[in-house]
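Morning, I've got a small favour to ask if you have a moment. I owe you a coffee for this, so here goes:
>
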Amino acid sequence: MRGITQNQEFIQLFSENLTAVLGFDITILDRNGNRVSGTGSYQHQIGKPAPDGSLLRAVMKTGRPDMTYDVIKNESPCMSCKFFKECKETATIGYPIIKGSETLGVIGLMGFSTDQKEKMIENAESLKEFLQHLSLVVESQLISQNEGFQAQ
């Protein structure tokens, strides 16, 4: 199956549109933890790996959504990230992109301001539900692309 990386143009445009609508930065990782797309602070990170120990890497590993609203608290899932002390994210939600039992990638929604943090906390459940549907859209796009690729 062709993965997220082979659909980078679609994934980046998708991320840019999501950022415009939601007002949060977006990054999407492939199955290897590399950024396939990024907006705002992460746009210059496309093609580079997300740091080990980061929330998005944890979501990749567990295949379960996760979030943090204060990366500097002791219970933060980000504590083992090498950028823990320099992190500018005020809030993050990570949602896996799953096909069957395989995690194909992760969608990350990040806030960098107090306003974004408050908005994310206030709308956490609806944002997680929205990310669940978005992960299905990405999965469907990958399946569609693969069917077209195999038919050639």
